[in-house]
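Appendix C: a fully annotated inverse folding record. The material below is reproduced so that readers can follow the format used throughout the book. The structure is listed first as tokens, followed by the designed sequence.
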């Protein structure tokens, strides 16, 4: 039997020892070389429909993805700011943090790119519903429904904390309640990664999930939720000049 045949046979018969997604620890947020991306201009794929909301750095537009044939929310960094290195880095960081935090209550990122006008954009799932700010004034949102939403927000935030990410801008405008019970934490624009990603280990016997005891990433506390507020509120080093309005 050739070594190729032996390898193929082993692949078929050997159970996977490590996480098939290639990580043997909790996935960590990767921000290294945040500016290394070539942002192909694919904006022709998206057709403008309207505006969903505006904030300090740009606006969130409703676009139609002509390829998949669905609406998408298109968060755009204003072109004036797109040439500012700190804002640009902050926006790319937002896309990566939000995109890597895959959780049912964190809006999935579909794409990150740049328009021909030099506007950076994040294409993401378009949430149909209301911000928590609006829901709090709408009697259709019962106390029970709001409490359920609150618990979903807590779970999303705990998920982020487990990956060393603090949101730092949790407020009713940054939470959306979907028409079918969905709850989403939005706007990871000033989120901060509080620990460097641990080095990826090569797979060993001890990294087999069945043998591994759960453990916190090397440089973060076992209870990230108890991190000192002063640490969480420290301004982001890469975008100290970014200011935000609600
Ligand atoms: N994925 C989305 N789907 C629908 N509306 C959204 C979405 N993301 C943001 N919005 C709307 O746009 C507003 C501003 O978005 P946000 O990400 O908070 O921008 P900023 O960083 O400028 O505050 C939100 O309050 C919400 O009303
Ligand atoms: Mg916001």
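Designed amino acids, in order:
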């Amino acid at each position: 039997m050739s070594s190729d045949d032996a390898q193929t046979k082993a692949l078929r018969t050997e159970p996977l020892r490590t996480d098939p997604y290639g990580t043997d620890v909790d996935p960590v947020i990767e921000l290294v070389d945040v500016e290394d991306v070539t942002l192909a201009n694919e904006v022709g794929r998206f057709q403008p429909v309207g505006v969903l909301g505006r904030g300090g750095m740009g606006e969130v537009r409703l676009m139609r993805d002509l390829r998949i044939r669905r609406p998408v929310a298109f968060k755009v960094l204003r072109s004036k700011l797109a040439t500012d290195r700190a804002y640009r880095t902050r926006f790319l960081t937002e896309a990566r943090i939000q995109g890597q935090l895959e959780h049912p209550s964190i809006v999935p990122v579909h794409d990150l790119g740049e328009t021909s006008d030099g506007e950076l954009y994040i294409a993401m799932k378009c949430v149909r519903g209301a911000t928590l700010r609006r829901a709090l004034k709408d009697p259709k949102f019962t106390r029970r429904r709001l409490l359920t939403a609150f618990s979903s927000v807590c779970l999303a935030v705990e998920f982020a904390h487990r990956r060393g990410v603090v949101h730092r801008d949790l407020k009713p405008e940054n939470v959306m309640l979907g028409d079918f019970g969905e709850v989403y934490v939005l706007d990871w624009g000033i989120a901060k990664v509080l620990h460097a990603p641990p080095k990826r280990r090569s797979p060993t016997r001890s990294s087999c999930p069945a043998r591994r005891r759960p453990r916190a990433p090397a440089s973060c506390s076992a209870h990230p939720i108890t991190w000192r507020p002063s640490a969480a509120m420290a301004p982001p080093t890469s975008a100290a000049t970014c200011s935000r309005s609600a």
